[in-house]
Specification:
The structure holds two protein chains of two kinds. By secondary structure, chain A is mainly β. Chain A contains one helix and three strands, in the order H-E-E-E. Chain B is built from 13 helices and ten strands. Classes of the chains: A mainly beta, B alpha/beta.
Chain lengths: 88, 331
């Protein structure tokens, strides 16, 4: 089971997925990098952003749960039990 | 012109006999200035012994993650701290993936599962999935389900699976450095049974696992001995949380040398671009490989990572005047 941890640092700028501490389209707050699962409060994750070009997200950016991810030839879906499905 | 390329012109291009291990190693050790000549010769060999057509394939993961094996490159092993979670694809989604693949003009659709070998649940899912695809989509179905028993080999052949993928991954001497939960010989035994069943054998591997150039040559020679219908050539895409997660990607020129060498080792095989080419070769290198011995591609996404859009690869084939192999040509 994924341990849920809140970042201690205040939200700052980040360019991985959404900006830290801001709300995405579904209204969920982005606090975690969806590639490495670490906090985006301290700043952007440029290496993760570059890698994400060739990878689907693995971590929910709102709650840091590991998502169930299915890759298919023409896309992907990633499901967080708390925050729902993302598709790409 | 290096002596090995002169020898290969006669032996491989004119006579259709692949290079031996020493010859493969000589190609892998060619200096950069001779790489274009090696690629040109490999391309001539491919055109002469395989023709201009390119076989296009799509792949999908039927069962992702939670694998009990410890293949050190794989994010789907349940033994590592990879973020990949276990998930199963349902039959409607499997059929939809086959339709998406067929829409690209692909003739091959490979169903893959992250397992040591199939259990009863997976074989049941395969029976239902293959039947549903054959009912709805005009495409050849291949499978990659790990190590098989003779009974499973026979059942997959009876389902209509026409090709079975089981990669040796690396050479025999290096394999224990990459996998400890099963042996290279166990994989070879599955491949032997697949061949005897009449299914086509698809067997390749991954370059960049830490093997030496000599071991890369050993691997190509061992594949040539197996004589598979198809060799998928992957380049390591280091996955977070795996034991090889910090390895560097293969340098582009080394990847192209390997493509030429593998083609000169196996003049008649289907040599397929598989995972990792986006990182290792990029757009320009992808083109160079298609003009250097490659005659098949996986289009679209892979099992847990993403690939170039299928339309980009298909446009590249059009630009290169390489026709996509038609389904009728494979039946």
């Amino acid at each position: 089971m994924t341990k849920l941890v809140r970042p201690d640092a205040p939200a700052g700028d980040a360019d991985v997925g959404n900006r830290a501490g801001t709300a995405d389209d579904a209204g969920a707050v982005t606090r975690w990098c969806d590639r490495c699962g670490e906090s985006v409060a301290a700043g952007p994750h440029p290496a993760c952003a570059a890698a994400r070009v060739w990878e689907p997200p693995r971590w929910c950016a709102s709650c840091r749960r590991r998502m169930k991810v299915q890759v298919v030839p023409a896309g992907w879906s990633a499901v967080c039990v708390e925050h729902g499905e993302r598709r790409g | 012109m290096p002596e090995i390329l002169d020898q290969a012109r006669t032996r491989v291009l004119e006579n259709g006999v692949g290079l031996d291990e020493a010859g493969i190693l000589a190609v892998l050790n060619l200096p950069d200035e001779h790489l274009p000549a090696a690629l040109q010769l490999a391309h001539e060999v491919r055109m002469r012994w395989c023709g201009p057509e390119v076989e296009v394939e799509g792949i999908v993961s039927l069962k992702t993650g939670g694998c009990p094996e410890d293949c050190h490159f794989c994010s789907q092993s349940g033994l590592f701290t990879s973020p990949v979670r276990s998930v199963w694809l349902d039959i409607p989604a499997l059929v939809e993936a086959a339709k998406q693949t067929a829409a690209t003009g692909a003739t091959e659709f490979c169903i893959v599962a992250a397992v040591r070998g199939p259990d009863a649940r997976l074989m049941t899912q395969m029976r239902a999935g293959v039947a549903a695809i054959r009912e709805a989509v005009d495409i050849q179905v291949a499978a990659s389900l790990g190590m098989l028993t003779q009974e499973q080999v026979d059942e997959l052949a009876a389902m209509g699976v026409h090709r079975y993928n089981h990669n040796l991954e690396t050479c025999r001497s290096y394999f224990p450095n990459v996998v400890t939960t099963h042996s290279w010989e166990e994989r070879w035994e599955t491949l032997r049974m697949v061949r005897e069943s009449g299914m086509e054998v698809c067997c390749g591997g991954i370059l960049g696992l830490g093997e030496t150039v000599e071991q890369r040559a050993e691997f190509a020679a061992q594949l040539a001995e197996l004589d598979p219908h198809e060799v998928p050539l992957n380049f390591l895409n280091p996955r977070p949380g795996t034991p090889l997660g910090d390895r560097p990607v293969v340098e582009g020129k080394d990847a192209l040398r390997a493509i030429a060498a593998f083609r000169l080792a196996m003049p008649r095989t289907i040599l397929r671009y598989a995972g990792g080419r986006e990182l290792t070769l990029g757009d320009l290198g992808t083109r160079d490989g298609l003009l250097g011995g490659i005659n098949a591609v996986i289009v679209g996404n892979y099992l847990t990572t993403l690939g170039r859009p299928a339309t980009d690869d298909l446009q590249l084939l059009t630009d290169l005047k390489m026709p996509v192999k038609a389904l009728s040509a494979t039946l």
